[in-house]
């Protein structure tokens, strides 16, 4: 078995916005490292410079089916045949349109209805006989999906289609393909049957007696049951109890591996990742080798009177001991302290060919030179940095700097390293823009303000007074004027700081919101609410009912109408957890997980 150790080095990345959540604000996919949105969920939404999604786009003749652009907003005026200018500046395709005016559909053909987001002009004509609207009694016009089926039909929770099979999650042309949890698909008549006895965790069965396909992340055991453990022979209530011949149950349980002395392993391929105490993993074949804890043979794989071969990742020295450094001649407990001729020992106890190198990577390539030495990336050597290269850490051909030592920033116009310790000039800056005398990236642990181009310790700060006090936060944070910190204003972790929610900045005492973000207003309790989402108010002036045409909104006692993560939720609990519904629409009830079913 091969075990991979990946060293991920992230450089030249400025995290503009860390608030990317999949399924929120039209974002379909977030980047795993930068946490910025990389794919939006509708054709008219695009990843923007703030890491989210917006519906503003530039108009270019010849692109997006546009023939002529006009106006300061770069809107498309004339589109290709079959396309109509939309309110977002591009061209939209609207088939099955009967009446249009100035390139915009006003009436659909018979048996077609408008679906889409009315306020954003993203409407299309959709057939009432389309597969996802067939036999539907109530349609969500904005989302273009069915909400309630005709009598005798059931709504799939997965693809939102109406078919005659109850407990069906996905269907195709009226036939069920996958059932909800705790039910399996009986292939003989395509019905969903409750999982019992031998068919627990089963996804499909041909005869209703034995399982033919297990649920995702489940495997067949030899006894015909579905378990969470691959290569299982006998399963019980708490998982696998016995593995097939040639496999062993790991010490921690739940995994069958090919190694008898395994502590934990990988479920799907049955290989060991970690051995029991007293054994060392051989990463070449996944075996657990005895390790007698004797320094003389530590990390040794094969030996007679002395070690002859080390385990993977360790190297045999002239003293017949194993160390993690290649070209080591003498070591102790796996740590090298003397290198062979023409190699040099760094502070990381690794041997490299580069003199004056103190740190190397996993391939023994130099990463940092000592003292005033600078690393020449092309020649792979450390040289004395003098003059303009005195504070340089990495150099290109030994002529200009590409990375500076600690406490210095790289001026990318002159490619020189200058001090970043002065609070007045480029404090904690790592490098500037090329051709512009402004900071482009801060050192680790500091964040760049987009408005003042200064580095501070405060995440989300746009403009700061000093490294510990912010003057203005970005739209995803609330400025606490008492502390000078930027606090998240989309989700609140502290019950005593509810006034941060949708707040732009607090009062001087930091006890209530002073200014809300755009689209929200301050109520009498000092909280930010969206009045436009309220359809009716009670006698006390509080919201009593939410509008029904703005997606999934639920009524919260403190903040009025807020986004709900589930369909058919009318009222939800405290702002700390909007996902828990307390009152559902007619025909639904709240289950144990706070969801309407």
Task: Tell me what the structure shows.
With 597 residues, this protein is mainly beta. Helices cover 0% and strands 42% of the residues. The protein is built from no helices and 66 strands. The strands form 31 sheets. It has a four-stranded mixed β-sheet, with no helix packed on it. A four-stranded mixed β-sheet has the order 44-43-45-46, with no helix packed on it. A hairpin with a 6-residue loop joins β49 (429-432) and β50 (439-442). It is globular and about 85 Å long.
Poorly predicted runs are 1-18
Terminal CA distance reads 46 Å
**Structural class assignment:** mainly beta
**Averaging pLDDT over every residue, what do you get?**
79
Give the proportion of residues in helices. Answer: under 10%
Give a quick account of the main beta sheet: strands, pairing sense, barrel closure: 4 strands, mixed
Number of helices: 0
**Number of E-type strands:** 66
Return Rg in Å: 32 Å
Beta-strand fraction estimate: 35-45%
Q: Order the strands across the largest sheet as they lie in space.
A: 20-19-21-22
Tell me the overall shape.
globular
């Amino acid at each position: 078995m091969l075990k991979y150790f990946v060293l991920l080095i992230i450089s030249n990345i400025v995290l503009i916005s860390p608030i990317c959540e999949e399924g929120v604000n039209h974002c379909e996919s977030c980047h795993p490292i930068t946490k910025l949105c990389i794919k939006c969920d509708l054709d008219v939404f695009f990843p923007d410079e703030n890491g989210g999604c917006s519906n503003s786009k530039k108009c270019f003749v010849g692109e997006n089916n546009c023939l002529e652009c006009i106006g300061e907003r770069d809107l498309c005026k004339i589109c290709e045949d079959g396309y109509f200018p939309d309110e977002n500046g591009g061209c939209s395709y609207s088939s099955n349109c009967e009446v249009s005016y100035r390139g915009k559909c006003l009436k659909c053909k018979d048996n077609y209805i408008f679906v889409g987001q009315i306020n954003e002009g993203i409407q299309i004509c959709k057939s009432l006989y389309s597969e996802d609207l067939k036999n539907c009694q109530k349609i969500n016009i904005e989302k273009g999906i069915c909400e309630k089926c005709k009598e005798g039909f059931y709504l799939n929770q997965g693809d939102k289609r109406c078919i005659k099979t109850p407990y069906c999650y996905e269907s195709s042309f009226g036939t069920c393909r996958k059932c909800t949890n705790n039910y399996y698909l009986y292939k003989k008549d395509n019905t969903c049957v409750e999982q019992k006895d031998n068919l627990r965790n089963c996804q499909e069965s041909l005869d209703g007696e034995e399982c033919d396909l297990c649920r995702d992340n489940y495997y067949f055991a030899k006894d015909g049951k579905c378990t969470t453990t691959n290569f299982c022979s006998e399963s019980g209530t708490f998982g696998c109890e016995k593995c097939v011949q040639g496999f062993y149950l790991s010490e921690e349980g739940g995994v069958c591996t090919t190694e008898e002395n395994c502590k934990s392993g990988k479920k799907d391929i049955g290989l060991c990742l970690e051995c029991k105490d007293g054994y060392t993993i051989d990463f070449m074949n996944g075996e657990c080798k005895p390790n007698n804890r004797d320094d003389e043979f530590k990390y040794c794989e094969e030996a007679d009177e002395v070690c002859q071969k080390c385990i993977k990742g360790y190297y045999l020295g002239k003293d017949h001991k194993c160390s993690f450094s290649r070209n080591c001649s003498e070591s102790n407990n796996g740590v090298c302290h003397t290198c062979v001729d023409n190699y040099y020992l760094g502070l990381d106890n690794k041997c490299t060919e580069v003199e004056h190198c103190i740190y190397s990577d996993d391939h023994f390539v130099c990463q940092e030179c000592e003292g005033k030495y600078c690393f020449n990336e092309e020649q792979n050597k450390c040289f004395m940095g003098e003059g303009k290269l005195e504070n340089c850490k990495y150099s290109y051909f030994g002529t200009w700097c590409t990375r500076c030592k600690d406490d210095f920033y790289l001026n990318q116009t002159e490619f020189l390293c200058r001090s970043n310790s002065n609070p007045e000039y480029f404090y904690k800056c790592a490098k500037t823009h090329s051709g512009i005398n402004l900071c482009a990236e801060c050192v680790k642990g500091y964040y760049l303000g987009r408005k003042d181009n200064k580095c501070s310790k405060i995440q989300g700060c746009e403009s700061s007074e000093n490294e510990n006090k912010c003057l203005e936060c970005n739209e995803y944070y609330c400025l606490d004027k008492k502390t000078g910190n930027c606090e998240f204003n989309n989700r609140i972790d502290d019950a005593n700081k509810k006034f941060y929610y949708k707040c732009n900045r607090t009062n001087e005492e930091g006890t209530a919101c002073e200014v809300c973000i755009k689209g929200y207003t301050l109520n009498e309790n000092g909280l930010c609410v969206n009045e436009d989402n309220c359809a009716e108010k009670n006698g006390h002036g509080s919201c009593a009912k939410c509008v029904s045409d703005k997606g999934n909104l639920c009524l919260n006692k403190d903040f009025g109408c807020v986004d709900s993560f589930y369909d058919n939720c009318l009222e939800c609990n405290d702002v700390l957890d909007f996902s828990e519904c307390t009152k559902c629409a007619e025909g639904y009830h709240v289950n144990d997980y706070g969801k309407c079913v």
